[in-house]
Each structure stands twice: as C-alpha cells, then as structure tokens.
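Hi W.,

Here's what went into the run:
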Amino acid sequence: MNSADSRTPFHRSARILLLLVLLAAGALLTACNRGEPMAWRLTNVTGHMPDLDFKLTDDQGKTVTGKDFRGKAVLLFFGYTHCPDVCPLTLAQLHVAMQRLGPLADDARILFVSVDPARDTPEIMHAYVNAFDPRAVGLTGTSGDIEALAKRYRSAFTREPDKGDNNYNVSHSSAIYLFDRNGKARLLSTPANPQDDLVHDLSLLLETKS
Amino acid sequence: MMIRTLSLLAGLWLAGGTHATEADHIHASKAWIRLLPGNLPAGGFVVLENHGDQPASLRAASSSIYADVMLHKSSTTGGMGRMEMVDNLTIPANGKAELSPGGYHLMLMKASKPVNVGDTVKLSLQFSDGSTLNTDFIARPANTIDGAESPSGHEMDHSRH
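Here's what came out:
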C-alpha cells in the first residue's frame, strides 16, 4: 500500500463514514447520560396497548381486578395447566429472571391467566403457580371474562374440541406483557428474547417508582 | 479346538451384529421429567445418540407408572404456543436427536402413584423396528430450566431388550 491510496474516493468516503459513526456514538452516549430515552431491549409497546384492567378469580378464590396490582410491576401471560411443556418452561424462565433480580423482584408479580377455565380451578392454579414462584398468581374466570382480557391485549387462543376424555390441547399466544407500577402496558417479551433482556428491562421497570 | 470355538463365537457375534436392532445403537442420556403438581401431565426429556450407520426412529414410549405416554412437539411459531402429537422422531445415523423443553417431549399422563422430586422413573423407549430401550428418567421440580444441568447428576443404568 502507498500513500496515494488514501486519496482515492473510497478512502475519503470511508473517513466521512467513520466521522458520522463517531458523531452518532457521541449522541447516543449523551442520551444515556441524561437517562432519556429508556434503553429498553424488549419490544416497547408504551402507548400502544391499554392499561392493566380485568376482573377475575385468583388462585385463593378471591375476586381480583387490575387495580389490585397497582404499585407492582406485572408480567402477564396466557396459558393453561395441562400444557406440559411451553407453559412450564415460560414460568420456569420467569422464575429464574425473578431470582436474578433478588429482593427487587418482590415488587413484581407474574400473572398466569388460564385460557382453559373449565379444567383450571383456583385450587389447581394455586398448586401450579406456587410450584414455580411464590410471586406468581394464577387467574381464572368465566370464558367470557378471559376472552375479553385476551382480546384487550390482542392475544389469541384456540381450544381443540374435547373428544370426551377431558384431554385436549389449547394453542395460545406465547407473548409476555410487562406493565409498570401504574398499570401502563410498557413492553412485550417472547420466548425468543434472551433472558438477559427480560432481566434488564424488568429491573428498569422496578427501579422506577410510581 | 480352542481357535475353532473362538472363530465360531466370533462368527456368531458378527452374524448377530448384522441383526442389531435400532435400540442397540442408541445411547440415551440427560433423561429427566418435569414434575407438575397434582395429576397434571409431566414432560419427559432425553438426548438420544445413534451410533449406528442406519437412521433410527423413536415411535413411542411406555412406563409402568404413567398409563399414557405420548410423543409431542411444542412450537412457538408466529407468536403462538402449540402442541401437536407426532408419530415418530428420527435419530439420524451417527447423529443425535434431543427431546428438550420447547421442542420434542414425552407427555406423561395418568400416574398410578405419586412421583416425587428425585425419584427415578423407568421408561421403555420404543423404536420403529419394535426394539426397546429402558431408560431411567430423574424427576425434577416444576421450575427446572434444564434438568440435564442439575448438580445432582445420577449415573444412569440402561438395559436393552
């Protein structure tokens, strides 16, 4: 290589590009220093989804509403207890994420909403959620109430017909909805998101006091 | 005489080798069960390695404890969690297949007696040629992420039939 190479148009544009990259990096650093905007890693749905609102039966048999969870960060997802693989895996992953946050996670609640209320009684839900995490709450209710909540968050589920042996599968949305302490929908996580991202964003949500 | 007996035995062994079953070539490891409360179905997971030159195919499994065992596959494509029954799972020649959370698994239903964390449950894995492989599955708590990585690793005993 000789010195003439550095004067070719290619190298000039490369130098301009490098300058732009440095400027952009500087701007990002400034933004981080000011703490704005929040550096979310999950999908930000702030302002695009309705606040946490429902009226269902918890795993103690009590009627609870979305407002009962104000002051807590909420991780909401839909599933059913006869799901032997994906639902337990999601709950186990949420449990590990909560453990990684330490005492901070005591201000978070996992809300596991059954899309199979015919089989998921509060008693079954209670034993189920507590097998995963003490901060998990099982919610069940009438088919209508659950469908309304699923529709509210554009979450789909379809139930196979029961062939008479009470053994059927339910396909359901695998997304996890994250709400802040004010019940505002903030983030969407999927099983494909790395756990580090969930831990990172949940800790940001929890560090913000309502 | 001695040599003749040995060569006869070797001949028998070779002849036997050509009639080796699918199960003879399969090595099962990291076998565990995710226990769920009450009568809820449990998930069974295992890594199957095929040391043979022919593909093998897992067709079913059975257990003296669980009355119903089904081979299933979970998927979360398009944001939907689904579970479907599958007829078989191919273990490629000189390759492996994994039954792991979020993918292929055995759905274990109708336990005839309570299974507790730490228990060993023997499952008979059945292959397409009818051969079977008995494998010990360790029962793990519901909130286990990867049962194969648990610190209390057991040496597993496999017997072939």
